[in-house]
Amino acid sequence: YIIEALTQSNIVNTDGIKELIPELKRVGNNLNQKRS
């Protein structure tokens, strides 16, 4: 779902993706911390 949303947003507005990238990295870091 997230990938599809990113793809659609990328077509509409690349600036939105630039704002989402840091959020995705933050979420990824949180998931990694919970696993450890």
UniProtKB/TrEMBL annotation:
It comes from human gut metagenome. This is Mobilization protein. The lineage of its organism: unclassified sequences, metagenomes, organismal metagenomes.
